[in-house]
Automatic annotation (TrEMBL):
The keyword Repressor does not apply. Pfam families: HemolysinCabind (PF00353). It comes from Selenomonas ruminantium. SUPFAM superfamilies: beta-Roll (SSF51120). It comes from the Bacteria. This is Ca2+-binding protein, RTX toxin-related. GO terms for molecular function: calcium ion binding. GO terms for cellular component: extracellular region. Keywords: Secreted. It is found in: Secreted. InterPro entries: Hemolysin-typ_Ca-bd_CS, Hemolysn_Ca-bd, RTX_toxin/Mannuronan_C5-epim, Serralysin-like_metalloprot_C. The keyword Glycoprotein does not apply.
């Protein structure tokens, strides 16, 4: 056990023992490092300037006071169930492994609870505090109200098992009245609890707003709104959920919410980006639309249905389903394992990333594979299929028309569901650099593989068997 009790402590490094150490710097500590090491340590530094504090292993109590305006401080609890109480600015607090309690006052803090079920407490006069709860079931206590303009708190990893506690003090006038109008604040009740929060969204960032001097909480990396909808919220004496507390975004004219989906009517003439709105509905139906518009999903598993004018659909993140209408639609899968169906019309389908299913359906479609393992079918019509950088599994059925395959590589596979025996029901010939396949089952069907070589697309499945081709001069035959 070691004890350090000083008024001033500057320019030194202090190392504790494996036991319970006690450090108390009562007035000013600067350009110093304190390392408690193993054991349940107590380290308190007032007026800390350019100070690093390490609790080490054990259940430590680490404190930094605002005296002399503490700044540029690192407080690291290390392993163990630590208690960290810090006041200052431009600093960092790390809970480390264990079930930690971290209380932060001041501004420009970066906090990481680390692994474990942590409680992180942020006071209402703070601003620009960024918190990462880390792995585990974390509780974020917002002690308020927030009495400063601008951002109060950013949480980078709020998850479904975490808890929010809004502990608004009713004695603050900012709770009882609006600071500008001096009228009763509609966001809050008399007991200090929050009536509702308005929300803004930009992609995976959601900002929750109370009023000019009220709650201003930013949630980052929210790829799926529905995964945080049921986060428990203790709101004064009441328990609720984020879904019940948040007022969803006002939708633009021509977009309404019905039967758990967003419906786009014929009056909408713009781009609708679901990632710019807070809506618990993740599916979009534009079947009644007759305008040429663009529709973008968000990070959830969206189902987007186009109308008849020839829409452009973006799945964005998530495992989406995009359905074209009767017009010439353009469908972009985005991230995730998506299903794209062109519908009627001469459509363009792009796989991009993920393992996707792309089906042009009726019309003369253009389909482009992506980075993953894609399953592609042109469908009815004379389609063009461009293989991507991943593995493309191309399907051809009887009556699918005259299709062209570009960029076929050795990892790609062509499934011939229109025949049972490739040796007797398919005929091959070279036309310049292109391989042309004709079929006895339907003379109107054909497949052209551009710039074909035996080292490129040379896996053909028919009747449950896999074949490859050989070439001798202009003669092409089944091995």
């Amino acid at each position: 056990m070691a004890n350090l009790n000083e008024i001033y402590y500057t320019g030194k490094k202090w190392k504790g023992t494996t036991g319970k150490d006690v450090v108390n710097i009562s007035s000013y500590g600067a350009n110093a490092t304190f390392d408690g090491g193993a054991g349940d340590d107590f380290i308190s530094v007032n007026g800390a300037q350019n100070v690093n504090i390490y609790g080490g292993a054990g259940n430590d109590m680490l404190k930094v006071d605002w005296q002399q305006q503490s700044e540029n401080v690192l407080v690291d609890g290390g392993a163990g169930n630590d208690k960290i109480d810090v006041d200052g600015h431009n600093s960092r607090a790390l809970g480390g492994a264990g079930n930690d309690f971290v209380s932060v006052k001041g501004y420009n803090w970066r906090v990481n609870g680390g692994a474990g079920n942590d409680t992180i407490q942020i006071w209402g006069w703070d601003r620009n505090v960024t918190v990462t709860g880390g792995a585990g079931k974390d509780t974020f206590r917002l002690m308020g109200p927030h009495t400063e303009k601008g951002n109060w708190l950013t949480i980078t990893d709020l998850s479904a098992e975490d808890v929010l506690r809004f502990e608004m003090n009713p004695e603050y006038t900012a709770v009882k009245v609006h600071p500008k109008t001096h009228k009763p604040n509609p966001y809050y009740r008399k007991d200090g609890s929050i009536r509702y929060l308005t929300a803004k969204r930009s992609g995976s960032t959601v900002t929750l707003i109370g009023n000019a001097y009220g709650v201003n909480l930013t949630l980052q990396n929210v790829t799926d709104l529905n995964k945080i909808a049921n986060v428990k919220v203790f709101n004064g004496s009441k328990q609720t959920t984020l879904r019940q507390l948040i007022r969803t975004s006002a939708l633009p004219k021509g977009v309404t919410e019905r039967n758990n989906q967003l419906v786009i009517s014929n009056t909408f003439r713009k781009t609708f980006d679901l990632g710019s709105y807070v809506s618990w509905s993740k599916n979009i139906n534009a079947a009644a639309n007759r305008q040429k518009i663009t529709i973008k999903g968000d990070g959830r598993a969206n189902t987007i249905v186009a109308g008849s004018a020839g829409e452009t659909l973006y799945g964005m993140g998530g495992n989406d389903t995009l359905r074209g209408g009767t017009g010439a639609d353009v469908l972009y899968a985005g991230a995730g394992n998506d299903v794209l169906k062109g519908g009627k019309g001469n459509d363009r389908l792009y796989a991009q990333s993920g393992n996707n299913i792309l089906w042009g359906e009726a019309g003369n479609d253009y389909i482009e594979g992506g980075l993953g393992t894609d399953t592609i079918r042109g469908g009815l019509g004379n389609d063009t299929i461009k293989c991507g950088r991943g593995v493309d599994k191309i399907q051809f059925y009887k009556g699918d028309g005259k299709d062209t395959i570009q960029n076929g590589a050795k990892n790609d596979i062509l499934y011939l569901y229109n025949i049972n025996n490739i040796k007797t029901q398919a005929k091959f010939k070279m036309s310049g650099k292109n391989l042309v396949m004709n079929f006895t089952t339907n003379k109107n069907d054909s497949i052209t593989i551009t710039n074909w070589t035996t080292g490129g697309l040379n896996k053909f499945v028919a009747g449950g068997r896999t074949y490859s081709l050989a070439k001798s001069g202009n003669r092409v035959y089944v091995k």
